[in-house]
Amino acid sequence: MTSSSSSSSVQVAVVGGGPVGMLLAAELAHFGVRVTVIEQNTETLDVPKAGTLHARTAQVLRRRGYLTAPRTAPELLDREATQPFHFAGLPGLTITGPAVEGDPIVGRAQSDLERQFEKTARQRGAVVLRGRKVTALGSGEEEVTLTLDDGSDLRAAWVIGADGARSLVREQAGFTSEEHLPRAQAVLGVVELEDPYSAPPGWNLTERGWTVINPSPWGPSRVAAFDFDGPHPDRRTALTLAELQATVSRIAGRDIPMFHATFLDRFSDYARLVHSYRRGRVLLAGDSAHVHFPVGGQGLNLGLQDAVNLSWKLALHLRGRAGEGLLDSYTAERRPPAARTIANTQAQLALMQPGRGHDPLRDLFIGLLQNPAVSRQLGDMISDQDVTLPRGPHQSRWTGTFLPNLPLTVGGRTTGVVELLRPGRLRLLVLEPGAANDLRKAVAPWPVDVTVADCASQLAVGACLVRPDGYLAWADDGGPAGLEAALEALLGRPAATTEKEPV
Ligand SMILES: Cc1cc2nc3c(=O)[nH]c(=O)nc-3n(C[C@H](O)[C@H](O)[C@H](O)COP(=O)(O)OP(=O)(O)OC[C@H]3O[C@@H](n4cnc5c(N)ncnc54)[C@H](O)[C@@H]3O)c2cc1C
Fold first, then answer.
1. Closest C-alpha residue for ligand 1 atom 35
2. Distance (Å) from CA 67 to ligand 1 centroid
3. Which residues pair with 182 in a beta bridge?
4. In order of start, what are the domains of the chain with their CATH numbers?
5. Which atom of ligand 1 lies closest to the CA of 19?
């Protein structure tokens, strides 16, 4: 245990200090919440899992200051940045994003992210209890009690289960889920290959399944195989080096000798999605709420966006400044992208079925991916760039969309949306200075920052209200009355004071 809290009562306890739990802690601490993370591992494990931040996750993390702000300038507005990716292991998919957002794919190991988020969380005052396991959870009207493996209790006003796929919080708090039973299994190892030059590199389909090998002649290689013969009878049986070698060799159709495994694991296409991300005073985020086959590298991306979506809402709620439905908008906004991701991983697995009978379907898909519109649609889906938030019937067509990193001039200084949002405050962006006075008056009863800016873009609105995660809560083509309704939904009825607070 590297640090401990003498208090047995906290505002928010986050169970699980993986990447999602640590980002929650960093965000909540930023918003002034007293947060404690309980993580059973004594240090971050360098496991070969996620290594890809997709476009929307990177865009959100840039707005929250966890990734470098991209350059924005008027000449970039009409340009796009593209990077090659794959769909179901098939080549030809391109992920495309606005050039003002920087690279649409960012390569970052999940362990690096976890370390960065933990460091930030601690710097901001979050307490991280490492080497402590939560063994039981008791939910009450006023608080939730967590029992730790040293026998102590920790009481929290709110608990967030970020404790991964086998979440104890989910089970003990009584969350219900929809489940999709597994039909395939995968084995994964980090090993030394006896002959790295002869191992088939990259994604390879054979008549028996797929091998995915990143051979390294200088050190450990990441070796995986997807086996469509059905799930392992007991998912918890530890994978051995011998089984990994036998499976990879069988699927490859030739012997691929390997030795000295430093990591071995098995997983499947079992999928689960909880029906609601909240039950009373308990919330879920990341893999505890949703799991699926990791094709397309989307799981961590979902979880990190959960963390950002939830944190500012919970902070407002704790301060008594949240609109009535704000906290429950977390499920409404984050569950649909998770459901869609589960569906797209299932579609990818269907396309990955080995056997000649499926080759014509794959060939058809490879052809379709050559069509830029198809590639764009699938790329936007994998990278969550087509995510818009649910909006009410009378709201502007911009409400719920993501505001790009437009170049802005504020008080003679050149900046961009990403930089403007970094403090994490609700911000009214006024692009028609003539309307500024009226709008200032309209938002005065709420803790909202107002920025009057010149914008070199074709944004068809004169003013918009931007949330800390970059999505628009209001835009002026819904009329000024819509602004007050949007503020009430976010922040409740105006408080007696107009004190400016962090969100
Ligand atoms: C092979 C593989 C490849 C993947 N590749 C990608 C990819 O490229 N891109 C992508 O986006 N996603 C990928 N994923 C998915 C990604 O790894 C997960 O979505 C991610 O780890 C979820 O983060 P999390 O913080 O929600 O959960 P976890 O990373 O599982 O963290 C949960 C934490 O909770 C702790 N914990 C659990 N129970 C307790 C308890 N009772 N008390 C205290 N602590 C507890 C655990 O020790 C752990 O640290 C991949 C997954 C796999 C298996």
1. 16
2. 20
3. none
4. 9-48+108-179+272-352 (3.50.50.60), 185-268 (3.30.70.2450), 407-491 (3.40.30.120)
5. 25
